[in-house]
Design a protein that fits this description.
It is a single chain. The strands form 2 sheets. Strands 1-2-3-4-5-6-7 form a 7-stranded parallel sheet. The chain has a two-stranded antiparallel sheet with strand order 8-9. Helices cover 33% and strands 19% of the residues. It is an alpha/beta fold and 268 residues long. Helix 7 links the parallel strand 6 and strand 7. The chain binds zinc ion (2 copies). One zinc ion binds next to loops.
Length: 268
């Protein structure tokens, strides 16, 4: 059975821990057939400051080392999780010109500049108003991202909610943003792009059902599934369950990217 994790981070990410070669070992142990490393390139830091130009040297070296060690056992691809690439089109073009790049997840991790620019991970979600203020800003930025072409799939479209359900236990109704999400997903579909289901290490599964139904209504067919693992242990977490969920919802394929082009793998 084809089983791929399309969202993982190595030590080439600021919040990563292990070399790519160890991530490939983890993927092999988890029984995967394909692994995409999608290390971070964010134009904004946690605090919202502009980051320096992306340096491909370390990821390319590590990718080569990983291919050498595991390339005969796993379909390994080089991806990127590209945060707020739409903020600087020229810089985005330079990053995406990398010829070895197979796959790009477009993400929004930060508030807009006018709202402070911090990562949603760092915000205080003590009150319901805090949460909805952050989400209003988030979905406006997601629409800007969807209208850009600096991505192959939209990354974790429900990203801030993972922190709102944490220590604060604030009840959040993401379906309040159904109209915004429909516009974002339809825009991605019209531009020939897709979306990812991000299991967040296996912790976020059923939350995707309404989003996937909406995506299907918009004519969406391109889907990747990723764990967002930052260490080897959670690689592949929730991916089998997500494939089953996709089939139940009427999707027949998942995408596997090489050279920024999707191959469609039949779910079975
Ligand atoms: Zn992310
Ligand atoms: Zn990630």
């Amino acid at each position: 059975m084809f089983l791929a994790d399309h969202h993982t981070h190595s030590i080439c990410s600021p919040d990563g821990f292990v070399p790519m070669v160890d991530m490939a070992k983890g993927a092999h142990q988890a029984g995967l057939s394909a692994l995409c490393l999608t290390d971070h390139c964010d134009f904004l830091s946690l605090a919202g400051e502009r980051t320096p130009d992306y340096d491909w040297e370390a990821p390319l070296l590590q990718f080569e080392e990983m291919q050498h060690a595991w390339g005969s056992k796993l379909d390994l691809t080089l991806g990127l999780e590209f945060g707020v690439g739409f903020l600087d089109e020229q810089a985005a073009k330079r990053v995406l010109a990398q010829p070895a790049l197979d796959f790009v997840i477009g993400s929004v991790h930060n508030l807009s500049g006018k709202a402070g620019g911090q990562d949603f991970y760092c915000l205080d979600y003590s009150t319901e108003a805090d949460c909805y203020r952050a989400l209003d800003d988030y979905f406006a930025s997601m629409l800007r991202l969807a209208r850009s072409d600096c991505y192959d799939v939209l990354g974790h479209i429900i990203y801030p909610v993972r922190y709102m359900k944490g220590s604060y236990q604030t009840p959040i109704h993401i379906l309040r943003y159904t109209d915004e999400m429909r516009t974002i997903l339809r825009t991605a579909v019209e531009r020939g792009h897709g979306m990812e289901v991000n299991t967040w290490k296996g912790q976020t599964l059923s939350e995707w059902i309404p989003i996937l139904k909406l995506y299907r209504e918009c004519g969406g067919e391109i889907i990747t599934v990723g764990s967002d693992a930052h260490t080897p242990e959670p690689i592949g977490a929730g991916i089998r369950e997500t494939y089953a969920m996709l089939q139940d919802l009427g999707f027949r394929y998942v995408a596997n990217y090489h050279g920024r082009r999707p191959d469609f793998i039949k779910l079975s």
